[in-house]
């Protein structure tokens, strides 16, 4: 009796370049997967926001309405709405299908660095260089924010929302976690301007990157440092970091043209992904699969764990079956 061969383990890291998209919107300031990972959003320095198919690399729609470069964007859970923010101090809520501006939200005193929907897409949260986070009701007739969080002593560079918690990173070197249900604020001090913050998928940890070229993993409830990840270069740019979809790896952009990928537990560098010769501006990890988006200059790259079958390969397989 012969035992079946053990299944080979699926590669955990997105090390194969699947396609490059020339976005033709100036420098791409941010790239983001949508909620299910089938589409991507690219934010351009030419004031446009673009929606693309990830699998085909084709442009589906262009959203025009900002007066200056677009810095961040997010898609709602049901893919019906987008929100984006810009150096023009505004946040825009878009209708995905028509491409029309549903709301233009004004109130920030300076450029808006980051924006995100809450889980139900009933609230948009935006963080600005003016040091505030503003919460906007997407369904209200009123155009005023429903809440303003002004605890930061300097610009808010990054924010993430997860259920009833809001995580913000600021140039003042502090990570703030707001428990919106309990009305509590938890502050962790990192002695360097913060460029990006994230929650881990299990909700137990927070990930922070800062301008001392270090990514740190903190225990969310105690603030204890669980891991430090170094080797990349982040000295003068606001660059992204993230966790892989299964929380196994930590990833960061770098000014040396690579994406660095570390083992979360070991802290060892597992992959140094050569994207190009310029600064890797932004990255986004697929919500469930081993896929990665990177942005450099005017292009977006899509990376996967294994090379994709081309249509010719599929035809050959079908002929063999026939």
Oligomer: single chain
| CATH class value | Mainly Beta
Q: Tell me what the CATH architecture is.
A: 7 Propeller
Main β-sheet description: 4 strands, antiparallel
- Helix-strand pattern: EEEEEEEEEEEEEEEEEEEEEEEEEEEEH
Q: What is the CATH topology descriptor?
A: Methylamine Dehydrogenase, Chain H
Q: What is the number of domains? A: 1
Q: How do the strands line up in the largest sheet?
A: 1-28-27-26
Strand content: over 45%
CATH superfamily: YVTN repeat-like/Quinoprotein amine dehydrogenase
How many helices in DSSP terms? 1
Compute the CA-based radius of gyration: 20 Å
Helix content: under 10%
Shape: globular
Strand tally: 28
Rounded to the nearest angstrom, the distance between the terminal CA atoms is 32 Å
Overview in brief:
With 322 residues, the protein is mainly beta.
Report on this structure.
With 322 residues, the chain is mainly β. 3% of the residues lie in helices and 50% in strands. The protein has a four-stranded antiparallel sheet with strand order 1-28-27-26, with no helix packed on it. A four-stranded antiparallel sheet has the order 2-3-4-5, with no helix packed on it. The radius of gyration is 20 Å and the shape is globular.
């Amino acid at each position: 009796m012969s035992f079946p061969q053990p299944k080979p383990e699926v590669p955990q890291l997105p090390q194969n370049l699947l396609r490059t998209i020339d976005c033709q919107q100036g420098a791409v300031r941010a790239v983001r997967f949508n909620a299910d990972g089938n589409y991507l959003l690219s934010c351009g320095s030419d004031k446009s926001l673009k929606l693309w198919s990830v699998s085909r690399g084709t442009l589906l729609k262009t959203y025009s309405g900002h007066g200056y470069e677009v810095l961040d964007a997010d898609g709602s859970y049901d893919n019906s709405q987008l929100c984006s923010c810009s150096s023009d101090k505004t946040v825009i809520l878009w209708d995905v299908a028509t491409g029309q501006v549903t709301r233009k939200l004004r109130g920030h005193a300076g450029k808006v660095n980051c924006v995100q929907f809450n889980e139900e897409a009933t609230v948009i949260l935006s963080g600005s260089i003016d040091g505030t986070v503003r919460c906007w009701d997407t369904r209200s007739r009123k155009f005023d924010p429903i809440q303003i969080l002004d605890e930061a002593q300097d610009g808010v560079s990054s924010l993430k929302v997860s259920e009833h918690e809001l995580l913000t990173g600021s140039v003042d070197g502090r990570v703030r976690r707001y428990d919106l249900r309990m009305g509590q604020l938890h502050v962790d001090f990192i002695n360097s301007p913060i460029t990006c913050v994230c929650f881990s998928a299990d909700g137990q940890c927070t990930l922070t990157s800062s301008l001392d070229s270090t990514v740190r993993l903190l225990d969310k409830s105690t603030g204890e440092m669980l891991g430090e990840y170094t080797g990349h270069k982040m000295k003068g740019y606001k660059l992204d970091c993230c966790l892989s979809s299964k929380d196994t790896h930590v990833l960061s952009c770098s000014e040396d043209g690579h994406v660095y990928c570390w083992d979360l537990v070991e802290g060892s560098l597992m992959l140094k992904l050569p994207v190009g010769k310029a600064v890797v501006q932004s990255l986004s990890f697929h919500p469930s699969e081993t896929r990665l988006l990177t942005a450099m200059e005017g292009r977006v790259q899509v990376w996967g764990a294994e090379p994709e079958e081309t249509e010719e390969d599929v035809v050959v397989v079908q002929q063999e079956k026939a």
